[in-house]
Amino acid sequence: MRWLITGAGGMLGQDIVGELRGRGAEVTGLDHSALDICEPAAVQRAFTAHRPDIVVNCAAYAAVDDAESHEETALRVNGDGPRLLARACAAHGARLVHVSTDYVFSGKGRTTPYPEDHPPAPRTAYGRTKLAGEMAVREELLDASAVVRTAWLYGVHGKNFVRTMMGIEASRPTVDVVDNQTGQPTWTVDVAARIADLGPLIGPDVNGVFHATSSGETTWYELAREVFRLLGADPDRVRPTGTPPTPRPAPRPEYSALAHGRWQELGLPVPRDWRTALHEAVPRIRKESPS
Fold first, then answer.
1. CB of 199 within 8 A of CB of 97?
2. What crossing angle do the helices spanning 274-288 and 161-171 adopt, rounded to 10°?
3. Which residues lie within the region annotated Disordered (predicted)?
4. Closest alpha carbon to 104 in 85, 124, 86, 79
5. pLDDT band per the 50, 70, 90 thresholds, residue 291
């Protein structure tokens, strides 16, 4: 099977390309400079040139705060772009894996993980535009698509919380980290593996929404402490704090853990515990991250 990865210059996109190549798959990764998913002609050229059997859409407007004042632009990328890809997949007989987010849920008033079929209720422009993309994919390509929601991503490539904490540990005596937001730290390598497993199975009997986050849950504060521990540093250098006095433009979810029932339905492994993944990831990030 031929795979085409959009947004392949990003943190997750790079790991998906690497995972598929490691499995011996034929894969083409296109970053934004090589493919603007909002341009119909560019999408058509990509499908004609690469003739994909499976497309994984990692392209997104992911600036959560900026989206509050640029929602029209975010909607073009997060909503219109996926629709174009889904239509192209329908025309060319390809399957589509579309990456989405926990921000499609409100993140308020909940203490147990959101199942895949829980009604979305986004509170941010980013969440609204990502939900629009989910709906577009399902409208255009119902039986040949999967929406894979993920959250709290970290990895070797790009900016992310774990890499930031690793840098702070080496440069500052203490750090204050919020302790009132709960979620699931998720290594992009694990998401890439789940997507590689799922893609070939997509069809009339395997489609819809899947949650690809690590199992378990924690706060940003506890995650930072665990990173410090793995670096051999004193975790008490991480200090808990509440919401910053100057709130960000987009409210952050108070609770956004996701359940993993669909993987169990397919007999595929449920994503592993966040601590197990982090213990494997931190040494690799230290070794492989660009300086």
1. yes
2. 60
3. 234-254
4. 124
5. low
Q: Are strands 182-183 and 218-219 parallel, antiparallel or unpaired?
A: antiparallel
Q: What is the pLDDT of residues 156-205, one digit of tens each?
A: 998 999 999 999 999 999 999 999 999 999 999 999 999 999 999 999 99
Structure tokens of 90?
Answer: 């329908």
Chain segment 60-84, per-residue pLDDT in tens: 999 999 999 999 999 999 999 999 9
* Size of the chain in residues: 291
Half-sphere exposure of 256 (CA within 13 A, CB side): 31
Query: Average of pLDDT values for 142-150?
Result: 98
Give the Cα separation of 114 and 98 in Å (integer).
19
Q: Which long-range contacts (CB under 8 A, 24 or more apart) does 91-94 make?
A: 91/47, 92/47, 92/51, 92/52, 94/4, 94/47, 94/52, 94/53, 94/54, 94/55, 94/144
What is the value of pTM for the model shown? 0.97
The label of the residue with tokens 């409100």 reads 106
CA distance 161 to 153: 8
Tens-digit pLDDT profile for residues 5-32: 999 999 999 999 999 999 999 999 999 9
Domains along the chain with CATH numbers: 2-158+184-215+258-272 (3.40.50.720)
Over the range 77-96, which residues count as b (16 or more CB within 10 Å of their CB) and which as e? bbbbbbbbbbbbbbeeebbb
- Alpha-carbon distance values, 84 to 79, 176, 193 (Å): 9, 43, 26
The active-site residue, picked from 103, 114, 126, 255, is 126
How far is residue 21's CA from residue 4's CA, in Å, rounded to a whole number? 12
